[in-house]
Specification:
The protein has 194 residues and is an alpha+beta fold. The protein has one domain: Peptide Deformylase (Alpha-Beta Complex), CATH 3.90.45. The chain is 26% helix and 29% strand. It has four helices and nine strands. The strands form three sheets. A five-stranded antiparallel β-sheet has the order 2-3-4-7-8, sandwiched between helices. Strands 1-9 form a two-stranded parallel sheet. It is globular.
Length: 194
């Protein structure tokens, strides 16, 4: 089932998600719905807070990035297979010199900005079968993970922008929270006057 994506301004996007266990109600159904919602919105990641649930769960399918001819073959192969469910994820280590990439977010349609992040991270998480994994991610796989990880910590990519950039997009963000945006997918707006 395609769920509405929570828009910028909703308090759930600012909550630190709670850890869940394998007894979480209808987890398989939730994961399936999150994937369907992400694909419907042409996203490469979706975190539970973006569908109104303050829990530590996100899904990623970075395979669309594998079509980018400017990337090295090795990274394209990694991205092609980078389709995962992350439960109770932790970043254990961040390495390297920060690099910039233009990011967007399904909860903040029509806003894209350059964000600086570390290129290599070591992460620990549980998959949908509650099997534990520790893995090193780099490049765009690391970036997508970090973006979604921020969501389960109540952080948005716009928080990482300079004060000037924040002032420049302030009106756009206010409009999004009021429902004055055409996303092309179902959304739930916090400040929509009914």
């Amino acid at each position: 089932m395609i769920l509405p994506i929570v828009a910028y301004g909703d308090p759930v996007l600012r909550k630190v998600g709670k850890e869940i266990d394998k007894e979480y109600p209808k987890l398989d159904e939730l994961v399936a719905n999150m994937k369907e919602t992400m694909y419907n919105a042409s996203g490469v990641g979706l975190a539970a807070p973006q569908i109104g649930k303050a829990i530590r769960l996100f899904v990623i399918d970075a395979s669309p990035f594998a079509e980018d001819d400017t990337l090295e073959e090795e990274e394209r192969k990694v991205l092609e297979d980078f389709k995962r469910v992350f439960i109770n994820a932790k970043i254990l280590e961040e390495e390297g010199e920060e690099w910039v990439f233009n990011e967007g977010c399904l909860s903040i349609p029509d806003v894209r900005e350059d964000v600086w992040r570390k290129p290599t991270i070591t992460v620990e998480y549980y998959d949908e079968n509650f099997e534990k994994h520790t893995e090193k991610l780099s490049g765009l796989a690391a970036r997508v993970f970090q973006h979604e990880y921020d969501h389960i910590d109540g952080v948005l990519f716009t928080d990482k922008l300079s004060s000037l950039k924040k002032r420049l997009i302030k009106k756009k963000l206010e409009n999004i929270s009021k429902g004055k945006v055409n996303s092309g997918y179902r959304m739930r707006f916090p400040n929509l006057k009914r």
